[in-house]
Amino acid sequence: MKRPVFLALAAMWAGCAAPRPQPAAQIPPAAAGANFELSSYEVVGTPEEDTLEYVQVFLDGRLQGRTEVAAKSRPKLWLGRIPEGNHPMRFEVWDSTGGAPGVRRPEELQPRERFIRVEPGLKTSAVLRFSEQGRRSLLSITYEPRPR
Amino acid sequence: MLWRILPILLGAAWFWACSPTVDEAEPNDDLAHASRLPANGRARGTIGRPDDVDWYKIAIGRDSGVLSLHVGGIRDVDFVLSFRGKDGRELKRIDETGVGGDELALDLGVQRGMYYAVLSNKNPKAANPTQKYVLSSKLESAAGRELEPNDSALTATPLEINSLTRGHYYPAMNLLSDPPGQADEDWFSLRSDRPGLYTLSLDLSAVPNVDPVLEIYDANNYKLKEISAGGVGQGLGFRDLGIRAPAQYFLRLRPRSRGMSNPDVFYELLNELRPYDGHTELEPNDQRADATPFEKDAVTGHIAPAGDVDWYRVNAATSPRQILRADLSSVPGMQLVLTVTDDLGQPLLVVDNGLKETPQVLTGIGLSNATYYLVVSEKTGRAANGRDAYALTKTLVPWQPGLEWEPNDSTATAQAVKIGESVDGYLAPAGDVDYYEFNVYQKGDILCELTGLLNVRWSAELFDQDNKPVLAQQAAKMGEPFRFDRELAAGTYWLKLQGADPGQNNVRDKYTLRLKAR
After folding, report:
1. Beta-bridge partner residues of B314
2. Contact A49/B at CB under 8 A
């Protein structure tokens, strides 16, 4: 009679003492035949500033998907298939605590919408770099041949 | 006028003539056998042999005073005049002249008790045992006077706050220094016991033949500031040293080189300690860590000494987006430059119109939720002006759509503007370049209009999202408005605006940029 109680208490103790699992990186499934990759990260000054965030991807005003939730300083990826052509794209940054949907950053801290050209047969890579506590963002676009 | 002061002159002459005169009583070769010298009197004696030493004791009958000693030169004798304390310890040694010369000891600080003046001869061939020398002594009030010896921080003369202190660059050499023969220097201490923030200003009068250097040290003997007059026979001034009381500071005053001295003309050192009112700089503010908080609308400061740089901290952490405007007044003989830096001290914008004795205007820079710095410097780094202050004024206004957001000097910092909107901005300071970024969502005619600006001939360039030039045009004339009309495909574009010449700018008038689709 005493043994099951002891085991139950031990199990509870072990459950409390063990390190809490970090929220698993929620990586949206990569679109088949992805021709666009977004990598977003932020330069942070201190470990305390390195909180969780993710980035939503909009094309022509429509949500396409989002990156995984991860620390600001860690590059967060989104892979998707974008129709070829020149499209206005917007990347929206959301602060997250890991579980909740997150909080959208104020408009003045959001990167502005820009046209990005997706060329046939090429993979478009966009790197979004934030600095100065998110006040500054720099978007750079590169192209490379897409494996068939 | 003369008849009015004649009685005073006659009285002084009578007093001097009638001041008590005594003769030395040999043997007076040591402290125990010292002859008497009245504090305001004269003694006569002889140098009977080359190694003769004459001791005189001077009784000081008041709590404090300043004593001066003078011995007139006599043939063959090279006097050394020594001033000693109660226990015979040597406090000051004077040997400024050679054979036959006078010796003079000035500004000797004394208190009630016995002091000694000792006369000796340096010439081994002296043979003048009969000619009498006259050693005179004069005691004055110590109020507002330097008190020798004050050759180190330990012996510094205390300064009375907000008062004038007089002293001499004399003797030329300190014979008791280690090593001996260094230039004489005068140390003063300034103590403020009442807690609070104060500013200290100093003014030092000019003295012929002397190029003075004034140094300021804190209680830890760290040098905070060195101010030099920059020439022989010039005075100097220093303004607004920030003091967090209670505190003690030391001033070290010295001539630039050893041979400079002047026993005839006082220097006058005026100190002024005022409670800090936020309207002046707080020196030292020569680096970011020591920046003066710029909390009021205006602040005054000085570029002194030469090469001085003044940092001011502007806290814009309370509002997400503000526009900082600043005006820096001109100062005679100076070419001032105003720099805006980020919180790490990296320059964001330099305001320099390249002209001497003209104001510098920061027409606006966007600040967002952070600390920024305004830095005032002098372009040549050689000019200093401790008397004429510059005034730096600032205004912080909330940013609103339709206003330019500097810095927008590159494609990376280009300001977003939508087709159908307008932006008001400044093309300033000199060399300013303004970038605007806009999206064209449908292929069509885009009209760009710019109002005319006095002193500016517009030059515009348009780049597409691949950074390829689409258009480059200039206005017909300076001051004229400018416009272009171009069919553009859908995409992101950057518009670069500048003067046809980098020197063209206008700190007074805003331009308006309008983008329209047709």
Report:
1. B372
2. no
**CATH code, domain with B189:** 2.60.120.380
pLDDT digits 0-9 by tens, B121-161? 999 999 999 999 999 999 999 999 999 999 999 999 999 99
State the total domains in chain B: 4
- A/B interface, count of CB pairs below 8 Å: 33
Inspect the interface and report whether the beta carbons of A114 and B368 lie closer than 8 Å.
no
Considering the domain boundaries, does residue B65 fall inside one?
yes
Of B516, B506, B314, B324, nearest to B405 by C-alpha is B324
Q: For residue range A19-63, list pLDDT tens digits in order.
A: 333 343 444 555 668 999 999 999 998 999 999 999 999 999 999
Pair (B55, B86) in one structural domain: yes
Check CB contact of A46 with chain B, cutoff 8 Å: no
Residue B443: which domain range? Answer: 411-517
What DSSP character marks residue B318? Answer: T
Q: In the 3-class helix/strand/coil scheme, how is B165-218 assigned residue by residue?
A: EEEEECCCEECCCCCCCEECCEEEEEEEEEEEEEEEEEEECCCCCCCEEEEEEE
Q: Which residue has the tokens 């370049």?
A: B433
pLDDT in tens, B346-379: 999 999 988 889 999 999 999 887 899 999 999 9
Interfacial A residues in 91-120 facing B (CB < 8 Å): 106, 108, 112-117
DSSP 3-state of B111:
strand
Burial of B417 (0-12, 13-18, 19+ CB in 10 A): buried
What is the average per-residue pLDDT within B494-503?
95
User: Pick from A86, A108, A133: which is nearest to B321 by CB?
Assistant: A108
Quote the minimal CA–CA distance from A118 to chain B in Å: 12
pTM: 0.68
Q: CA angle at residue B345 from B341 to B347, to 5 degrees?
A: 40
Of B368, B441, B489, the CB nearest to A135: B368
Report d(CA B243, CA B218) in Å as an integer: 10
* All domains of chain A in start order, with CATH: 26-145 (2.60.40)
The first and second tokens of residue B79, run together, are: 């006097």
Kindly report the nearest CA distance between residue B471 and chain A, in angstroms. Answer: 19
Q: Rounded to 5 degrees, what are φ and ψ at B289?
A: -65, -25
Q: Which residue from B115, B149, B128 is spatially nearest to B49, judged by alpha carbons? A: B128
Rounded to whole angstroms, the Cα distance separating A71 from A81 reads 25
Chain A CB within 8 Å of residue B370 CB: yes
Q: Token digits for B21?
A: 């005169």
Q: Is the peptide bond before B246 cis (omega within 30 degrees of 0)?
A: yes
Please identify which residue in the block is written with the tokens 């030395």.
Answer: B24
